[in-house]
What we know:
Blueprint: H1 2-14, H2 18-62, H3 72-94, H4 98-123, H5 131-147, H6 152-173, H7 177-184, H8 190-201, H9 204-213, H10 216-222, H11 225-232, H12 243-256, H13 262-273, H14 277-287, H15 296-303, H16 306-330, E1 336-341, H17 370-380, H18 389-394, E2 397-404, H19 410-425, E3 434-438, H20 440-456, H21 462-468, H22 470-486, E4 491-497, H23 502-512, E5 518-525, E6 541-544, H24 547-556, H25 562-583, H26 587-590, H27 592-606, H28 612-629, E7 633-639, E8 642-648, H29 651-662
Parallel strand pairs: 1-2, 1-4, 2-3, 4-5, 5-6
Antiparallel strand pairs: 7-8
Amino acid sequence: MERLATFFRGKQDAEPSATGVFEAYIDATGMAEAVVVQGTVLITWMRRVDLLVVVAIALYFVTERRTVLHKREYEKLFWLFIGVYAGARTAGALQLTLPMTVAFALLVAETFNLLASYVTSQVTSLKMLSDGLWALRKQEARRCLKELSSQSGFVRGRTFHLKDLVDKLYGTKAAGLKMVLFGVLKLHTPQQEQIHSILKTSPAKELNYHLSMINCSKLAYVAERGTFSMLLGEGGRIKELSLVSKVLLLDGLQRIGIVSSNSKQLWARNLVLSFHGKELEVMKAILDSRGDWHSLHKLVFYDLRGVAQQEVMRHLHSEGLKRKDEQTFMGNVPMTKVISDVDDTLLCSGGRWPAGVDARLPKRVMYPGCCFLFQQIAAANSPKHNEFSQFFSSASLVLLTARPKSYKGMSEIYSYKMLTGPLKRKGLLRMEPVVLCGDLKSGLHTGLKSLLAVLMDRFKTRNAARAVWSPIALKKAEAVKQFMMLYAECQLVLFGDSGQGDLELMKVLSDESGGQAGIRASFIHKVPSTSTSTNMGTRKIFPYKTYIGAATLCYKDGILCLKDTVRVAAEVVNDLEFLAGSVGPEIKTLMKVYLGDVRNDLSSLQRYCKGDELNLLQMLQKRVEVLAECGDVRVEHTQPGRGKLMSFGRRWRNKIKYRLSKR
Length: 663
């Protein structure tokens, strides 16, 4: 009995009381609630940080031209922080360990840095793509070295040392956290001090030789602020610089980006205001013939801002009006620039919406004789400049496109490459055109309206079709009027098509050109399935179907002489034969309508010719007939609207060669 009582007494002592169990439960519940509260607070703060990061990124993209985030050093730090934060948040969502989280965050940060560096390298390309600019640099270097013949060896040695300093410093400053911190803390390296010393102590002739031999874009990238303040600031050495040196410095500043830097804005403004008269004309021509998306229009209306932009605009416009009055007083022909649309005017759209409606030629094919006609118009109506004539002829073409601008101009870069690259490789484009782009707002507006019009069949009336393309037409008109303000001394010849609002654009410009610049004439490419109004003659807007017809209209209006008009016709036929050899035997099916239009325009041009010109046109007519008659194509249809070429006759190639040999 005693053992049994002891057993039950021990069992009762071992069991906890109800009060103890309740107290333990309260403690555990409190700890859980505390953990939940802390987790909720942490999640709230993380969401706030996420929102802050999203706002910072949105601010970065929206205020591209106004925030300190777009300065080179701060931009690197910004994307480094964004990459680390994005990596840490992703690692937390994946529940990685601490070492793996750190490694993953650094990997994501490096990825962000590489993407940002790629965009920067594309936008701030420091390569000179223009052969004319390279030749101008060499010519300027030879001229300066000839003037320094007594000490040319010493000067060349200092130039080599300066170039070596710039290249080495550029290699380290283009990437590396050390140079980023140097830029943020406003420090400079011994190499930058040596560059400053060489440029400061060099006489004027030696300084111009230095600037013609080194890459001024790299110099603007690596030099400290005091160096360019000494060269281009108030009271600096800008008056000692030659025309070529100032153009090279302005080109270098624009390439590295001046949008977010007040000091670079001031230096670019001082450079532009230092040009007057004929020197200003030369500067404009060089800036517009660099073979990439950089141009005078981009410098004034995109890179410059605020007071600097207004002063530069007033200077360019007033100097242009003075130059125009001088040319009128002396009886000289004002300089002529050609402004052309791209789709269905320069390049055929192949009938692919929304690019255009013309299906007479293959897609992305340049219209025969187009570029040659533009060259002849510019050459026949421009003053002759001996030393810089190549720049004036190269910069005489302006391409007008509705393609919108994008982040840091990436769309303009790729648009320029896509437009000019294939044509240059084929030898069809012999100029360095300026590309004026549209904006995203008008493009989206027009895209939605045109899509709605297609769905609701609103193209039954011409007014409805005109209303669809009205936003893009107004945006193009704004870009052209900006260009007219910069080139008040020039007269413009416009080319467009009847499919995408270019007719409305020409009417607006013809009515509003006024005293800014003269619209010499406008030519509208009449593409199939469209119509043009009959009262365009009062505004000097002339419709055409081929560039032989456009050249004939130019002759009738006094823009071209008869000899140049016949040369354009010969070039059109040559381009057609080139197209036949490069595209293949689809020539008969794809170009049947276009070849008929060419024959009609050749017949119309023969009315104004006699003698040798008439004989040449008759021979051209026979060559076009050969193209229209040759080739047998058999197509196997594989899908609705598509086909596969199976076989073709080769007689057309031999016949063309025979005709050419007989000629």
